[in-house]
């Protein structure tokens, strides 16, 4: 395979529908919540060059985009997805690393954050230098949290006043820590336990 990971251009708009379908299908198979995207929104991110795409000789292999909040004070990476044909090859980590470096270049003063229920994403974030943080350290921009409305867990988030949910918040502050080293250790047992506790608390009938 000859996979290239590049900043999106006009020629990549045609992949918008496939990207959305792949993201939604992946969430359904995992049984996790998801903030749904539209092809129009994905294309808008491509137009502003706030996205990277992975291609294997023209075939869609993976994608991720950048969102900025509070006038560039915070940025987040969203929609990280790898096509089923290219999973278990380490491509998600390569895409995440690419978009991470690109964010530092385009938004050098921004804090980079994310919320996720995926242990694989948590592991990648940890290796890049993110640390788990309470939601209070993330953006307060209401438009970010409004993006969670299509997630199946949105009622939980609302009931906790946007302070807690099944997702784990993670943050990288470029003024606090360099990318390499140090790296925050990733303990899958601890995060699995945290996830189980949250599910027991928030999903109990």
Automatic annotation (TrEMBL):
Lineage top rank: taxon: Bacteria
Domain N-acetyltransferase: from-to ranges: 1-151
InterPro entries xref list: Acyl_CoA_acyltransferase (IPR016181), GNAT_dom (IPR000182)
Protein name: GNAT family N-acetyltransferase
């Amino acid at each position: 395979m000859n996979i290239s990971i590049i900043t999106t251009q006009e020629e990549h708009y045609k992949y918008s529908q496939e990207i959305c379908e792949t993201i939604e299908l992946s969430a359904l198979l995992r049984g996790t919540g998801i903030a749904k995207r539209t092809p129009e929104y994905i294309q808008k991110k491509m137009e502003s060059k706030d996205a990277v795409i992975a291609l294997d000789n023209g075939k869609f292999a993976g994608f991720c985009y950048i969102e900025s909040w509070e006038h560039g004070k915070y940025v987040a990476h969203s929609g990280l997805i790898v096509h089923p044909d290219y999973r278990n090859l380490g491509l998600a980590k390569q895409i995440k690393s690419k978009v991470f470096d690109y964010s530092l270049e385009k938004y050098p003063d921004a804090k980079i954050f994310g919320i996720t229920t995926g242990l694989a994403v948590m592991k990648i974030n940890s290796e890049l230098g993110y640390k788990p943080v309470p939601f209070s350290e993330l953006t307060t921009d209401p438009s970010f949290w409004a993006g969670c409305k299509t997630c199946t867990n949105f009622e939980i988030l609302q009931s906790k006043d946007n302070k807690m949910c099944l997702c784990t918040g993670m943050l990288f502050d470029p003024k606090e820590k360099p990318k390499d080293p140090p790296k925050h250790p990733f303990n899958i047992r601890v995060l699995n336990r945290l996830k189980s506790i949250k599910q027991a608390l928030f999903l109990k009938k």
